[in-house]
Specification:
The complex is a heterodimer of chains A (116) and B (116). Chain A is built from no helices and eleven strands. With 116 residues, chain A is mainly beta. The chains are: A mainly beta (116), B mainly beta (116).
Chain lengths: 116, 116
């Protein structure tokens, strides 16, 4: 988990509220990623960014938004439009210029979001 | 499109016995293949990767994986399992070309249990 921090570790929200999950990395990595993990479904990509001020939708972007104003930060907002937001959220980063797929991704410790 | 299949949701082995966690993949182009491990309520830890060269790749904690191009497989192996190896294991793939360069596609994960 070293080098990537996610806060908080546990987050509780009421339905209808937006919530922002923090992801910071001090690895000087160009690329950053957000995944959602649900039991038995593996990791599903929400958004990714290969360079500052640019990001792309992943497979399940609906109801989520991101920004990449700084190289080290990639916050994820879970909006009230996300129908089933309770999940474990993982942030990752990867070194090298954008588009170099052979670098492994480094993961943060995750944030468990519970919405009631 | 890129995809990964982990055909076994669970693998159970006795401590000291060899273990194998299976992974098959489908990509357009040449594959880059990765194995990660996840302990409960933690982020993913990188174990090993195949980019090119020797088909047998050695990684962390005594794990290794064999790339088989004809069978499009990348099975994870360890000669002698430890109870502490019990965790959730993910296989992931990306390719050396195409619009998906840089993003990983994960399998659903295999829960490995090593009993004493």
């Amino acid at each position: 988990d070293g080098g990537i921090t996610q806060s908080p570790k546990y987050l509780f929200r009421k339905e209808g509220q937006n919530v922002t999950l923090s992801c910071e990395q001090n690895l000087n990595h160009d690329a950053m990623y957000w995944y959602r993990q649900d039991p038995g479904q593996g990791l599903r990509l929400i958004y990714y960014s290969q360079i500052v001020n640019d990001f792309q939708k992943g497979d399940i972007a609906e109801g989520y938004s991101v920004s990449r104003e700084k190289k080290e930060s990639f916050p994820l907002t879970v909006t009230s439009a996300q129908k089933n937001p309770t999940a474990f959220y993982l942030c990752a980063s990867s070194p090298g210029p954008s588009g170099q797929g052979f670098y492994e991704q480094y993961f943060g410790p995750g944030t468990r979001l519970t919405v009631t | 499109a890129q995809s990964v299949a982990q055909p076994e949701d669970q693998v159970n082995v006795a401590e000291g016995n060899p273990l194998t966690v299976k992974c098959t993949y489908s990509v357009s182009g040449n594959p880059y293949l990765f194995w990660y491990v996840q302990y409960p309520n933690r982020g993913l830890q990188f174990l090993l990767k195949y980019i090119t060269g020797d088909n047998l790749v050695k990684g962390s904690y005594g794990f290794e994986a064999e790339f088989n191009k004809s069978q499009t497989s990348f099975h994870l192996k360890k000669p002698s399992a430890l109870v502490s190896d019990s965790a959730l294991y993910f296989c992931a793939v990306t390719a050396d070309r195409g619009s998906t360069l840089g993003r990983l596609y994960f399998g659903r994960g295999t829960q490995l249990t090593v009993w004493p």
